[in-house]
Amino acid sequence: MGSAREMLNEPEARRLTQRANELGRVIAERDCILVTGATTGFPDIVSRAARRHGCFTIGISPAASREEHVSRYLLPDDGVDLIIYTGFGLKGRNVINVRSSDVVIIFGGGLGTLNEFTIAYDEGKVVGVLQGTGGVADRIREIAALASRRAAEEMVVETSPDALIDGCLAALSSRT
């Protein structure tokens, strides 16, 4: 879960694109299935990188059809292996994304990512945060502390994609 918007600051955009590509590679190397919002920006970059490295990717679309996905929401139809068209809009899609995932990864992000985080956090999902990616990801501990439903220490917060995915998989494994 992360920012679907383009970055304006070119050096920062390059750095975050590299991090997104690394995250996609690691997700694929750990034999995970990636679920995204079938969107643009960093989720799209992560998805395409994961696919290049052999990961199966699923996109949950806010649209009811491919036509609406492309024309109304202006989203790509070639960034994932499988798109599920929900017709539930952006916030409805977020609930499906989170509930369909064992682990929710936060990468940068704004209001939509914050919505996905709050759903995941409230529902007790394993939440991983890639620090140093800006936006919600870099403020997530403060936000979690406000909730006081779970200890913020229960999240996996790392600056390395390898350490993040390994930590999230270990947290997931300890629950079963």
Can you walk through the features of this model?
- The protein is 48% helix and 14% strand.
- The protein is of the alpha/beta class.
- The protein has one domain (10-175): Rossmann fold.
- The strands form 2 sheets. A 3-stranded parallel sheet has the order 1-2-3.
- Helix 1 packs across helix 2 (41-52) and helix 4 (89-99) crosses helix 5 (111-122).
- The longest helix is centred in the first third of the chain and has 20 residues, at 10-29.
- The mean pLDDT is 91.
Topology:
Blueprint: H1 10-29, E1 34-36, H2 41-52, E2 57-61, H3 66-71, E3 82-85, H4 89-99, E4 103-107, H5 111-122, E5 126-130, H6 140-147, E6 156-158, H7 161-175
Q: Judging by the overall fold, what is the CATH architecture?
A: 3-Layer(aba) Sandwich
CATH first level: which class? Answer: Alpha Beta
- How many structural domains can be distinguished in the coordinates? 1
Q: End-to-end span in angstroms?
A: 24 Å
The proportion of strand residues reads 5-15%
Strand order of the largest sheet: 1-2-3
Report the count of strand segments: 6
Total of DSSP H or I helical runs spanning 4+ residues: 7
Mean pLDDT figure: 91
Largest beta-sheet details? 3 strands, parallel
Radius of gyration: 15 Å
Low-confidence stretches: none
> Any idea of the CATH topology?
Rossmann fold
Order of helix and strand elements from N to C terminus: HEHEHEHEHEHEH
Helix content bin: 40-55%
- What coarse outline follows from CA principal-axis ratios? globular
* SSE-based structural type: alpha/beta
